[in-house]
Design goal:
heterodimer; A: about 200 residues; mainly alpha; globular; B: about 250 residues; Immunoglobulin-like; 2 domains; nine-stranded antiparallel β-sheet
Chain lengths: ~200, ~250
Amino acid sequence: MTFDREGPLSSESEQELMRQLVAGEEDAIRALYTRFGRSVYTVGLRLLGSAESAEELTQDVFLAAWRKAARFDAERGRLSTWLMAIAHNMAVDRLRHERGAGRPPLVLVDELPEPDPTDEEDALVQRDRARRALAGLSPAERQLLSQAYFYGWTAREIAEADGIPLGTVKTRLRTALIKLRRAEADHEKAAARLAKGSLE
Amino acid sequence: MTCVDVRDRLTDHALGLLPVDESTDVERHLDWCAGCRKEASELQEAVATVGFSLPEAAPPRGLEERIVGRLVDGSGPRSGGRDHRLGRRGIRSLVAATLAAILVAMGAVGWAFAERHTAQTTEGNLQIARRLYKLIAGLGGQPYRVQLLPAARFHTSGFAVLVGSRGTNNFIYVEVLAPTPATGPYTVQVVDRAGGVQSFGQLAPNGNGDLFYGNFTSQDLSKAITVSILDRASDVVLSGKVALYSAG
């Protein structure tokens, strides 16, 4: 089985891709990198602050994906979510590990390199959808999510730093994530309706 | 952990902010609780949305090739940058350790370990290499080696030796430095070309502060492609690809 470089993969295709990854198939490794290499590298650059750290992280994330591939279950979630969770968790681990020794400066969004003009349409659509979902959050929710996602602060650390009750921080973070998920789900339903309409 | 305990932690879990022990407990609960698993999955999708909202940066040229090379070649050390994961003792001499492993298989445990620790010179390795091939010939199988590298949050290293044959002389030997953080007990898992997963027994201390496992099996190990060491939460602590062993 070969894999398209663009377009969504069915859960069966995702499972097959991971089965081939376990087997060390070069095509599967390249397919995975083509689809997610940029997103993983971007998370590394944004959280760790240097191209060198981002490259190291990207290599380690793909190695971790290969090691854990046998346990990937498409019925439990999408491949993109699974891989981005590995990337974010590994980046946060490093952030928290390095915090005591002086954390590297964050790369501001404006400082990120411009995307390749040939950026695939799928990635642009996904990014636009994600940004719209984030725009639906209140400023307080966005700030909390930013502290947790980009700085690796726990709810307790945020509560102490901002002088907000721990329960309030937890509730707001959870609400923010649920809002994001609902917005994504609404977009998916709308896209599915559009696709169905275009077929009829 | 109850569902209430787990749900209280799912946000931090999705954001990768839970301490290791709590994360392990949550993962265990999610393995059997469909309700909490659904919520965890949705929260994780939401977290991934934040990552996907970022304007994409272009990775350096050659990164894809380095990743492909690292995985296809059996996950060697990371190219470029520092690599601090191999532990202070580093990856031991595979040749000497491999030989010791086969000697253990022949029932010469004490002698083999003593031999390994005094066989660090090239001449010593060569001498034992000759013995190894004699022993493998006696087993009648094809030897394979596996360099085990740690998952990101672990500090450890190790190796495995497999002898694959169609008879009952398939043999597996694994030895690793005791991982930190300690999340044992650790079990050995082998994946074959067909995607079949075979679990073996637990690693045990060998008296040198290392952990090992060795046994004969009727499973055909000549089709094995990866060997992994899993901890009590079934997380991969070390893993490596199976490669043909050669005397060199």
